Amino acid sequence: MPATLTLDPFDEAFLADPYAHHETIRNAGPVVWLEALGAYGMARYAEVQAALRDHVTFCSARGVGLADFARETPFRPPSLLLEADPPLHDRTRSLMNKIVSLGSLKELRPVWQAKAERLVDELVARRHFDAVTELGEVFPMLVFPDTIGLMDEGREHLLDYAAIVFNAFGPRNAVFEEGNRGKEAAISWVAETCRRGNLKPGGWGMAVYAAADAGLCTEDEAGRLVRSFLTAGVDTTVNGISHLVLALAQHPSEFQRLRANTKLATRAFEESLRWDSTVQTFFRTTAREVEVAGVTIPEGAKVLLFLAAANRDPARWSDPDSFRIERNTSGHVGFGFGIHQCLGQMVARLEGELVATALAERVSALRPAGAPVRRLNNTLHALASFPVEIDPA
Ligand code: 4IA
Questions:
Q1: pLDDT (tens digit, 9 = 90+) per residue, 214-266?
Q2: 231 CA distance to ligand 1 middle (Å)
Q3: Where are the domains of the chain?
Q4: Which residues lie closer than 8 Å to 357 by C-beta, 6 or more apart?
Q5: What is the pTM of this model?
């Protein structure tokens, strides 16, 4: 029998400060029963990583949120990547992997670098700025929608759409209801935007339709795969970059270490993801009865994987709560693990590296100028605002 916990990992106190609660879950056992959800939970690195690796037992096609698609109608037509198992997943994933390739990123790097440098130049000249609304939310919007080839009109809906989808992985709680209020237009905008006729030539969106023309997927599947870019590609990097700046501002000696060697930029971003993982949690569903660390989990159970808690498990990481950019972060599960590991991880890394480098080159000191303000979301650890003050280099 697993230990029973009464805490609700989606209530507002938990979402506002998840790291205050992770130790309770890790210490309760390798597998816990979360009474508030009617689901199992795992928060230790070993079990989280093992579950992610065993995608046959811990499947995704029944949804990676609390809802079991075998019993409930999905919130939206399921993602053909995230909410799919092999063989479907492997077919869609391999065609998407060819589009999000090293070669395409190599081409984008100089363009994105110039945009990062210009944006940071403008912010540095002002001395005070908001690291979320004026940097984290701005940079991905400067580079990503053009890369996909999205129509110009309505791009502001992207963040609203992501907030809705990431909220929908959790229960239908107040965070879901309030977080989604007034954002309904985003859903129809995204559906329209993903159509072949609305995408610009030369982008990753049209590349997916080219894959359909080549017989690798159907026209309908192509639209839904483009939707995956839009869902997964913005709010994640927005909060990844915002948390990177938060981490550097709260750890001045680490920022100085980065300034002394800007080649540490990629490591700094990776460590910021381990230290504060944007995607905090995901569910899997058991496709069979399975025993984990002596606990029997029945078939058809929802299992909540606490990625962010695994990334600070003291059994796996030394001094896990401290942000150290020279740490070896390999194996962190901030991008997941196994066959579903983040398709866009190289995109995210490039964005993070460019922002970190541009800051390190132009700023001699970075200080918080107020407390960070959280934006509660059922899946993402998100920020609404974080005012900072800088000294130019
Ligand atoms: C999709 C895990 C998260 C970044 C994600 C969200 C949505 C999708 C993929 C990944 O719609 O395919």
A1: 999 999 999 999 999 999 999 999 999 999 999 999 999 999 999 999 999 99
A2: 6
A3: 3-392
A4: 116, 262, 265
A5: 0.98
Q: Per-residue confidence at 325, pLDDT binned at 50, 70, 90?
A: very high
Short-list 141, 170, 188, CA closest to 306: 170
**Closest among 65, 188, 126, 47 to 369, alpha carbons compared:** 126
Helix ranges, 150-200 (H): 157-168, 174-180, 185-193
CA of 306 to the centre of ligand 1 (A): 16
How remote is the CA of residue 255 from the centroid of ligand 1, in Å? 31
In this structure, which residue's CA is closest to atom 4 in ligand 1? Answer: 232
- From ligand 1's centre to the CA of 345, what distance in Å? 12
Q: What is the pLDDT of residue 247?
A: 98
pLDDT value of residue 202: 97
Q: Phi and psi at residue 352, in whole multiples of 5°? A: -65, -45
Mean pLDDT of 294-323: 98
CA 282 to ligand 1: nearest atom: 2
Q: Ligand 1: list residues with CB < 6 Å.
A: 79, 81-82, 228, 231-232, 236, 279
User: Best substitution site from 83, 226, 231, 379 to test ligand 1's pocket, by max atoms within 8 Å of Cβ?
Assistant: 231
What is the chain's mean pLDDT, rounded? Answer: 98
Q: What is the CATH number of domain 3-392?
A: 1.10.630.10
Position 226 scores a pLDDT of: 98
What's the gap in Å between 173 CA and the centre of ligand 1? Answer: 21
For the segment 74-90, the average pLDDT, to the nearest whole number, is 97
Closest approach atom of ligand 1 to CA 227: 11
Strand partners, 41: 32, 304
